Amino acid sequence: MPEWIWPGSDPVVPSDDRGLAYGQGVFETLRVTPAGPVLLEAHRERLLAGCRALGIPFDAGALDAWQQQAAERGLLAPQAPAVLKITVTAGSGGRGYRPPEPVTPRVISVLVPAPPVPRDGARVRFCQQPLSAVAAGRGHKSLARLEQVLASAELSDDEFEGLMAVDGGSGWVEGTRTCLFSVVDGTLVTPPRDQLAVLGTLREWLVRNADHFGLAVQERALTEADLRTHGLLLGNSVMGLVPVSECGDSPVPVNAGATRLVEDVNRELGFG
Amino acid sequence: MPEWIWPGSDPVVPSDDRGLAYGQGVFETLRVTPAGPVLLEAHRERLLAGCRALGIPFDAGALDAWQQQAAERGLLAPQAPAVLKITVTAGSGGRGYRPPEPVTPRVISVLVPAPPVPRDGARVRFCQQPLSAVAAGRGHKSLARLEQVLASAELSDDEFEGLMAVDGGSGWVEGTRTCLFSVVDGTLVTPPRDQLAVLGTLREWLVRNADHFGLAVQERALTEADLRTHGLLLGNSVMGLVPVSECGDSPVPVNAGATRLVEDVNRELGFG
């Protein structure tokens, strides 16, 4: 059975936790509202895929058990919108890097503040810190997030997000905590899955439902020319879609197709 | 001032620690004996370089303070050899990936079991898991160690270490927790610094003092032919040098130069 840690006064974990020691764990941040969690199934899928990739025996049954306990605690449908973070680590034990047998997962659930969202337009910048094309756990939301931490440290206070490129690749593929979208003449352009450090749940949903919003889909990295000509949207499942108004001190346009998509998506997912 | 956590009954860290959440931290494992710590200065240098690279304001003065407290607790010169692990994280706080200002480091000190060491010859294997050439924090002993964890999970119970290659590179450059050496006709061959996930303290010391052991130095990745012809040594500062006797079910020779180096180095550093 996993070890459960629930929101309370000053939750702590043993200092020998393998998530702390080596990054052997995954997490999800889930927007929860009176109507329930947003994109729950997508978050479940990514969490379980990450656990499999990292050798953590936390399966759908264990996740069901978490979900039931979280529901009983009122965490999945709070009175006001909130963000619920679940972290699943490989627990304690093992000899150095070698995991113990069996691994006993540790599951930490906490409520974290919802991020402020500049609905009228975000400032972003191009980051120097590259994404590794072969990082272990790539695509999964593992606890090893140094690339994103170091890219975030490049941002000034009034910059909302940093754009990142794959080392040796061309074009911009991802924000530190958002996926990237551009609406170009009726087509949703977004970087391909295999270039992403984290496979965004909102992105997956949006690509799957693009025709519902009257858009075709093209998957490719975005160039600076794309941004300057067609504009840029940022998206994740706790903020919805956010238009970009400025990148690196130069303006970024917001076209009519993008404005409509932002309104439609945010309404559909229950964002303000 | 950093927050200190010392060995005691069940040490814990707050669940919002940035080392746990994102891997924003570094660690060192230090062999400590009645004669004091082994290669202390090299461990200090690597720890401080890692903190600088990861934006953690833990400097030489803070490390001096740690060292003094550790000495007062008897941790640096125990009655029997032991392994002291120090972990320095970016502490708690911040908005998501963005670090707080200021960062208050958290310093966790624990005694961990000394690894068993097959002095008569280790079995190793070639690992599938590659090392990323551009991983954030590369060279530093950061808490983001998924590559090493996943490579270690490839090992069977009777395999002591796994050899890793840089993605897209040629040759073997590093073990999951050791550096690699081959003694070839009076020359110490070891992979170059810029190909290492972690810059080994024993390796640095050995390269600097090679002439003391009557050896020249050549820095290059090792091929399987090197291993099969000249043999392979594994080394780190908590185990000293260990000869390899078998790799992937085929024997690996141990030549006279390697045997002498193992004896000389282990004697000089106080290993049994």
UniProtKB/TrEMBL annotation, chains A, B:
<dbReference type="InterPro" id="IPR001544">
    <property type="entry name" value="Aminotrans_IV"/>
</dbReference>
<protein>
    <submittedName>
        <fullName>Aminodeoxychorismate lyase</fullName>
    </submittedName>
</protein>
<dbReference type="GO" id="GO:0046394">
    <property type="term" value="P:carboxylic acid biosynthetic process"/>
</dbReference>
<dbReference type="InterPro" id="IPR043132">
    <property type="entry name" value="BCAT-like_C"/>
</dbReference>
<dbReference type="Pfam" id="PF01063">
    <property type="entry name" value="Aminotran_4"/>
</dbReference>
<comment type="similarity">
    <text>Belongs to the class-IV pyridoxal-phosphate-dependent aminotransferase family.</text>
</comment>
<dbReference type="InterPro" id="IPR050571">
    <property type="entry name" value="Class-IV_PLP-Dep_Aminotrnsfr"/>
</dbReference>
<dbReference type="InterPro" id="IPR036038">
    <property type="entry name" value="Aminotransferase-like"/>
</dbReference>
<dbReference type="GO" id="GO:0016829">
    <property type="term" value="F:lyase activity"/>
</dbReference>
<dbReference type="InterPro" id="IPR043131">
    <property type="entry name" value="BCAT-like_N"/>
</dbReference>
<keyword id="KW-0456">Lyase</keyword>
